[in-house]
């Protein structure tokens, strides 16, 4: 009888100890993600809000640091004005989508490719100078410039993006120690994923890009 009582008491103690340990265990902090760039980035946070829990990221905080119409140079200035405030968010990850608004200027000669590369390098380095709550540099993920669907697949704009601009962007990302998300591959040859203007993705296109951001985030964090 005494042995049975001891076994019961031991079982009760084990249950209480497990409950106490569970109560003392700290919940993992949310993953802080900032979405930076031009108008193509603006819908992404809303889709992340819905899709991230399906992707084993149950706790997160989102920040939108995007503005329509910005070139890389324009965003660099935008970042310079807001960097101090944005850094207070302590982002763990920064998504960067830029370059679409640079394409016409690059093709016309109003902007030089080397200036695009210099500006993008500065943006990445500025974000890598931010600090997470742990004091680390955030993971910076930069997307390739997407396909344009407002003309033929082999238009001057799309050839320039595929053959010149995105290779230059990839080089910048690699040299700056950032991670790459291939937005061009997601939307290439898919006019059905665009609004009638052929520049901005429709809802299905936005979701496709957001899923690619999530896949790339997982791949980069697993490296």
Fold blueprint:
Elements: H1 2-24, E1 31-37, H2 44-51, E2 60-66, H3 72-87, E3 93-97, H4 103-108, H5 113-128, E4 139-143, H6 156-176, E5 179-181, H7 183-187, H8 203-222
Helix pairs in contact: 2-8, 3-5, 5-6
Question: Can you give a write-up of this model?
Answer:
It is a single chain. By secondary structure, this protein is an alpha/beta fold. The protein has one domain: SGNH hydrolase (Rossmann fold, 3-Layer(aba) Sandwich), CATH 3.40.50. Helix content is 52%, strand content 12%. The chain contains eight helices and five strands, in the order αβαβαβααβαβαα. The chain has a five-stranded parallel β-sheet with strand order 2-1-3-4-5, with helices on both faces. The longest helix is centred in the N-terminal third of the chain and has 23 residues, at 2-24.
Distinctive features:
single chain; 223 residues; alpha/beta; Rossmann fold; five-stranded parallel sheet; 5 strands; globular
